[in-house]
Amino acid sequence: MKIKYLLSLCLILSFYSKAQAEDNQDLHLLWDQILAQHVVKIAGGHATQFNYQALAQQPDRLDRYLNSLSAVSHKRFKQWHKNKQLAFLLNAYNAFTVKWIIKHYPVDSIRDTGGFFSSPWSKTFISLLGQTVSLDTIEHEWIRGNGQFNEPRIHFAVNCASVGCPALREQAYRAVQLNQQLEAQTVRFMSDSSRNYAKGKTLYFSSIFDWYDKDFEQGWQGVNSLYQFALKYKNELALNQTQIKQIKDESISLDFLKYDWSLNDVSK
């Protein structure tokens, strides 16, 4: 009886040791390596391009990374704290987007890769958390949809493989650095005067703010409107005192710039 008890105890300890070892592994190390090798900074670092052609020729490392993400069970995912969950989902979205592009490469735009009646974002080609899902599932249901994260800065972290997108970050997102990484991405995007700027009595924003305006009205860090978000990043937008006053009293006009869906490819 005592031997059976000891064997059972050893099995339990072995299981928990294995689970602990898995959670202590750097799950996103391969993604870090891919990004470091294939992301190229442009426009003074405000934007990036990606070398899809080079990765398409040697996709094995990306496939190994995606397989490691697919191996994470829903039960294991739910045991993680929120920052680890969000970092996982952001990395998964970006990495599976890159996979989708190299599957169809060469291509001029991600929008050219969908079907006649469906977009590439609605294609269910991703094995994740025990389901087969789409990019839309990851972004709109898991990241944005349930109110768990209430984090509008994710819009500067997910990358849709287009010139109009915020930069694809050169490093993987990680739980312990997530707030700093999201803030750096936001500052990077807001200070890009080709995407967001004020001129005269008009504040010109990326179309991202038009599409997802509700996400910036949910009380994140006391922000309940696009005007308040603009004030939070007034230095990055290089606003003068008159424009700041106009934003405070919401007398400045909001206009949204045309989005560039061209592929963010180094060969373009």
Short description:
This protein has helices spanning 2-24, 29-38, 52-57, 60-70, 74-79, 82-104, 135-143, 178-190, 207-211, 226-232, 241-248, and strands at residues 39-42, 47-50, 126-128, 131-133, 197-199, 202-205, 253-256.
What can you see in these coordinates?
This protein has 11 helices and 7 strands. The strands form 3 sheets. The protein has a 3-stranded mixed β-sheet. A two-stranded antiparallel ribbon has the order 1-2. It has a two-stranded antiparallel sheet with strand order 3-4. The chain has 268 residues and is mainly alpha-helical. 32% of the residues are buried. The protein has helices spanning 2-24, 29-38, 52-57, 60-70, 74-79, 82-104, 135-143, 178-190, 207-211, 226-232, 241-248, and strands spanning 39-42, 47-50, 126-128, 131-133, 197-199, 202-205, 253-256. 45% of the residues lie in helices and 9% in strands. The protein has a domain at 24-192. Mean pLDDT is 92; it is low at 8-24. Helix 6 (82-104) runs antiparallel to helix 7 (135-143).
